[in-house]
Amino acid sequence: MQKPKSGGTEFASTTAQTPGSAKPDPILVADKIMRQFGGLTAVKVDHVEIQRGSITALIGPNGAGKTTFFNLLTGYDTPNSGTWSFNGKDLNGIPPHKVARLGMVRTFQLTKALYRLTVIENMLLGAREQKGESVLLSVFPWIWRAQEEAIRIRATAILKNFKLIEKQNDFAAALSGGQRKLLEMARALMVEPEMVMLDEPMAGVNPALKQSLLEHIKELRNEGKTVLFVEHDMDMVHEISDWVIVMAQGEIIAEGTPASVMGNRQVIEAYLGSHHNTDLTSEGA
Amino acid sequence: MDILFIIQQTLSATLGVNAIIFALAAIGLNMHFGYTGLLNFGQAGFLAIGAYSVAVPVISFGVPLWIAFLIGIFNSILFALLLGIPTLRLRADYLAIVTIAAAEIVRQIARSATFNEWLGGSDGITGKFGKDFFDLNPFKAGINTPILRFNGNDLWVVLTGWTLVALITSIMWIMVNSPWGRVMRAIREDEDAVRSLGKNVYLYKMQSLIIGGVIGSMGGFVYALSRQSVQPDNYGTALTFFAYTVLILGGAARVFAPIVGAMIFWFLIVFIEQVLRAGVTSNLIPDWLIGVNQVGQIRFMLMGLGLMLLMIFRPQGIFGDKKELTLDAKA
User: Fold this and answer.
1) What residue numbers bound the domain in which B151 lies?
2) Which CATH number does the domain housing residue B212 bear?
3) Which residues contact A70 (CB under 8 A, 6 or more apart)?
4) Do B331 and A173 touch (CB under 8 A)?
């Protein structure tokens, strides 16, 4: 957590802008990841590295396999083949809760706020290694009460930062869609992750909240954390990402700085189709 | 119509042995369903295992009753593991299917001719296996007042039973209000979110299944002891669904719900029956409308009607919070 800003953002200028390029200090490395659903190959990633301390965007048209790739990396799904490691630790066969304990915490495309828990309870749940979460120690409140208070102080501070403090005693279900996204991100921070994986953090968030979400993501990088996020909102990708990885039909087709990727012919074709310049009316019949 | 007699019968049932059995069964279900979201439709199986575990070792093998209690707890843990290991990794509905089947398997094994020698087949077991327990009773005379009446044995079961319920409820209260209870409620809301925060959901669900199952099997202890007999057909699916009725009557995920639910359940059943019976015998209810032999059936009809009205006008139960209930879990 206390890592310096180890040039997390400067690597972009010195790194090759090709799919699967090597990064100077990768936190996450994946090799030959393949996931098939019946006859459909959803993900087929040859090699990818995520630079430590950077904000990396994972973009691509619908059905490109971004969320599946996320699920594979975080243990929610198992690839047919492939290896991947986090901080040098092999993650093959590691269940999701252990991936989270290793310091890689994700959020979900369809927000998973815990609705019938209050906002503050959602937050407290995130903290690691709570004595009171053991079935045997739970019956002796004096053992865990001090730790609980310390966690509450940390949770309150994060909620203040995310401007959710007034809502702390409301059920999470009472929050708006955008506030739930904020809560989910704030809750992920309670785990004290090294790397945060955000699956469409901006989906359904109104413009005012969007700006504050952006600031929070930048803040994560400033604290030395690594962020990988899936996003459709190109303005957001442009504004905050240091590096962009583009997926289409399960494969990584381009990598590079936001500016270089947006101008990449392959990327434009993947999004708009290769015939996007031809006149549809003359092509028909 | 003897109003005092109706009051005596009703009050004795409200505080009686059956209310204790259903309270314990429902406390277990509250752990499973109310706090963790596990759909256990086989609670009767846990009660059966508890009941047979106190009767069989004492009668067939001469084991002391206190050891039999420990055997009962051990067996219910084993049963929970057996149910949980294959199903808790799967979606919630699989647990429902497996538990309802497993409880029936337990009952069918108990009543099968194969194990007749130990389990007594469909006749079950009758005998003085509770002797060690009733020997400790300081109130052998029982209690006989105009409004409350228990014989000596029942009074002892009632006193120790409610003490057990109070003890378990206090521990439950502490547990569900601890960080452990928070993880449980979170699992009820969304397992995957809890996994993403580094919690071993499978382990927690197993703990819930075991704890709720052991509490249920204690209901079985009371059931067996109070009657000094175990009948396999008392542990059918109806028992599970009555226990759910008790829980929902009180309000799921409320610590005191099973106690109050069980009391109201037995209050209503006995009160309706006694009023009908008194009405029929004193000819206040004409014979062409309800005959003496129909009272038993009619009381369940009225009970069902009452529960329907409750679900319509107070779906959250006695203690529940309507606001909480209307929060769609997948909004």
Assistant:
1) 3-326
2) 1.10.3470
3) A58, A76, A106, A197, A199, A230
4) yes
* CA A256/CA A260 separation, integer angstroms: 6
In chain B, which residues have their Cβ closer than 8 Å to the Cβ of A141? Answer: 174, 178
Residue B157 main-chain phi, psi, to 5 deg: -65, -45
Across the interface, do B195 and A97 touch by the CB < 8 Å criterion? yes
Q: Is B72 part of a structural domain of the chain? A: yes
Please give the full DSSP string across A183-217, using - where no structure is assigned. HHHHHHHHT--SEEEEESTTTT--HHHHHHHHHHH
CB within 8 Å: A141 and B174: yes
What is the set of domains in chain A, with CATH numbers?
A: 11-111+192-283 (3.40.50.300), 114-174 (no CATH)
List B residues 155-184 in contact with A (Cβ-Cβ < 8 A). Answer: 171, 174-175, 178-183
pTM of the model as a whole: 0.90
Provide the ipTM.
Answer: 0.87
* B331 domain-assigned: no
Report the residue from A101, A116, A117 with minimal CB separation from B198.
Answer: A101
Q: What is the pLDDT along chain A (285 residues), one digit of tens a residue?
A: 444 444 467 787 778 778 888 888 899 999 999 999 988 889 999 999 999 999 999 988 888 889 999 999 999 999 999 999 999 999 999 999 999 999 999 999 888 889 999 999 999 999 999 999 999 999 999 999 999 999 999 999 999 988 899 999 999 998 888 889 889 999 999 999 999 999 988 887 888 888 888 888 999 999 999 999 998 877 788 888 999 999 988 899 889 888 888 888 888 787 766 555 555 554 443
> How many domains are there within chain B?
1
Taking contacts as CB-CB distances below 8 angstroms, the residues of chain B near A188 are: 196-197
Of B183, B193, B327, the CB nearest to A173: B327
Q: Do B91 and B197 meet the contact criterion of CB atoms below 8 Å apart?
A: no
266-325 in chain B: CB under 8 A from chain A: 323-324
| Closest-CA residue of chain B to A143 | B178
